[in-house]
Write a structure and sequence with these properties.
single chain, alpha/beta, TIM Barrel, 8-stranded parallel beta barrel, 13 strands, 30% helix
Length: 336
């Protein structure tokens, strides 16, 4: 609405000391008290990673009680900033962080995995959690202080922004949340090249590629896509890659993603009950350690693409992995 004469006079009186003034055509923007938004969540996973096997190389298997490392790190924006420790290389996503607040005493040990595993949430984050900033949560940004471990910007839910506009957004976010906090960006797998280039340009810590972006790209086909983009855009930089799946990942899926070049994965828990999520995390930890011991490696950092085999022709054709039995990629992957 246009400013009234009284409002214009009052504002110009306050601006007089700054040698500036508003014109008679000035407008006032008033909040309606409600925000309308729409986030498309209709896309679903087009497959899974069950057609990919994890096979050992030359290392002998480790004994059952041999300690193995399953942790991953998300480094801060500053060199002296402490990194975020992920005991399991994953960020489970739930909408509301209130589910993670244990009603049990921490000394009980019943929820030890949830208490140490960072989650990604849209609201009510714990100090160890990462806050997902999409169109919904950005509208409520004033409710969040600095009590988060990091933030993740969902590019797919926002209007198209150029690099200058993104710079302005990052300045605001880093002012609100702190300069040392890690900043992640998330976008569909079809735009992975642009996402990785932008992440490096804006000095973001992690670029998360969402597989379920509506394009229908199968999970197996994302492995060479991620690997090539990481090699082309992220090598010799401080930015790492991650993958977001639309289905609940198991230990096998996480290790396959890690072999493909993803530092960690974002996935949804099978249920949103606190104790059930605890059992799920405990099971993931046991299964992941079992697989690593079978491979004969002491750390998840040692897994690589050579550990993977395609179990059928179609998977080998779209993933470029060695086909089990044939032990080589299919010939068309060598053609120019």
């Amino acid at each position: 609405r246009p400013l009234t004469a009284a409002e214009l006079k009052k504002i110009n009186k306050e601006l007089a000391s700054f040698d500036t003034a508003l014109g008679a055509d000035a407008f006032c923007l008033e909040s309606t008290g409600s925000v309308e938004y729409h986030i498309d969540v209709s896309t679903v996973s087009s497959g899974d990673l069950s057609s990919i096997a994890i096979t050992p190389m030359e290392e002998p298997p480790l004994i059952d009680n041999h300690d193995v490392d399953t942790a991953a790190l998300i480094f801060g924006a500053e060199e002296e900033s402490p990194p975020i420790l992920l005991p399991l290389p994953m960020l489970p996503f739930i909408p509301n962080g209130e589910l993670l607040v244990s009603k049990e005493k921490s000394s009980s040990g019943r929820l030890s995995q949830i208490q140490t595993q960072p989650f990604m949430v849209e609201e009510n984050p714990r100090p160890i959690d990462l806050l997902l900033l999409n169109l919904r949560s950005l509208c409520n940004l004033s409710q969040h202080g600095r009590g988060v471990a990091g933030i993740c910007i969902d590019f797919d839910s926002l209007p198209a922004l150029n690099d200058e506009e993104l710079d302005g957004l990052f300045v605001i976010l880093r002012t609100l949340f702190g300069l040392e906090l890690p900043v992640l960006a998330c976008q569909g797998i079809a735009r992975i090249q642009a996402l990785h280039k932008r992440a490096v340009y804006h000095k973001l810590q992690v670029a998360v590629s969402r597989i379920e972006d509506g394009t229908g790209i199968p999970e197996a086909a994302t492995l060479p896509i991620v690997g090539r983009s990481v090699k082309t855009n992220l090598e010799s930089t401080s930015t790492t890659a991650a993958l977001e799946f639309g289905f609940t990942c198991d230990a096998h899926d996480i290790i396959v993603a890690r072999c493909a070049g993803a530092q960690f994965v974002v996935t949804q828990p099978p249920v949103l009950e606190t104790e059930d999520m605890e059992y799920w995390l405990q099971g993931l930890a046991l299964d992941m350690k079992r697989i690593l011991r079978q491979l004969g490696v002491e750390s998840i950092d040692q897994v690589q693409r050579a550990h993977l085999r395609a179990l059928d022709y179609d998977t080998a054709a779209i993933s470029g992995l060695r086909m089990v039995g044939y032990e080589r990629p299919l010939p068309h992957w060598f053609s120019k």
